[in-house]
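EI: anyone free to look at a 426-residue chain?
SC: sure, send it
EI:
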Amino acid sequence: MPKFLLLLSLILTTLAGAQPTQVPTPPPTAPQPSKRAVLRALPLGNETEEPPPAAVPDPPAAPPSPKLTRSSRPAAGPEPVRSRRRALPVDPDAPDTPITPEKPKVADNVKPTGDDALSLQIFLDDAMFGPGIIDGKPGRFTELAVRSWNEVNGYPLDDWIAVVTAARKAVPTPLGVAVVPEVVKDWVNPDLPTKYSRQAKRKRMSYRSNAEFMAERYHCDVPFLVVLNGSKKIDNLQARHAIIVPNVQPFHIENITGIAYQADAAMSQRHAVVDTRINQVRIFEAAPVALVVAEPANPTEPLVTTGPNRGLIASFPITPGESRFIKFGTWEVRNAVELPIWRYDQQLLDTGKRSHDSDALEIPPGPNSPVGIFWAGLTKPGIGLHGTANPETIGRARSHGCIRLANWDAIRLPTLIRPGTTVEIR
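SC: here you go
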């Protein structure tokens, strides 16, 4: 008993000493997982050169630019190195197994509508709590993102008042005008073949349309761009055309160079939990220690916290592998690489035995690769967290073994986790 009391005293002393390093978040402000300039589309009706409001405050010395220019990704850890890594095969020929998405559990009259709904989704997305596709229709993924934000800030998990209030203040102009950049010509190929034997001869797995390029750039889908702009404009979209888009931090595909990320003293110590029941990955800081990481004894019971859970730093919607392929357990991130080459090995898919390299196909990298624009392989062979060619299927169709994220979420993973990070699949 004396040893137990001594250990308990040491733990309490450690936690008390770490408390001053936590940044208090007075209601109703947003969590700040990183300090970065948020480059947005120009708000509708804004013809001045003043920067639009940003959901994530910028340092005074580096105000955001109001123009849609290429931005640098957040730098973290040691300088990454370039590498041509291969993603392990998935089975592309087997169709996704349709699943019924988990129904929303919050009453519709609690959720915001119109501009408030868009502002909320953009606010959560900027805060690293992915709401899924931004469409102004808060569904189950938005609910989960709200719960994550509330958990970090110490509010009741299903309370929407504080987060909606914060979103209105942080994102007063949820729609903006964006110009299709000239670089679109380098990333769009309407003639991209569907057969793997022909894809292997191409340089890149490009977008198939300018509309697809712009939809992924602004974290939405083509149908929502049609709602905002009309089908005629979106169907005939060209470089230098201006369209209305969600005023979210854009995903700049042209800034991705194919680098491989190395271990990082801080990020490699983090812990990611892939919850296949609710289709979400949650990322926890190593210090301060998260209040809630362990799985509740009763999965039907709501998550209850006793205060702000500063250890939770991000959460994103995912599609888990098919039940018979899910590798439950605790693993580590083995490698992390942008623009992975995907090795299509039919013999490995059929028999589990790798064929000779001459019998396999190397599918080039790109946003329409089956593994998207980023691959984080785990120490469990053949399993990884990766992007997807079809962000609209996240949470709505099962993959065949891996953990899929929308490309705009997947590219944020190396700013949060690195080789060595623990990944628990439950």
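EI: The chain is about 20% helix and 15% strand.
SC: 👍
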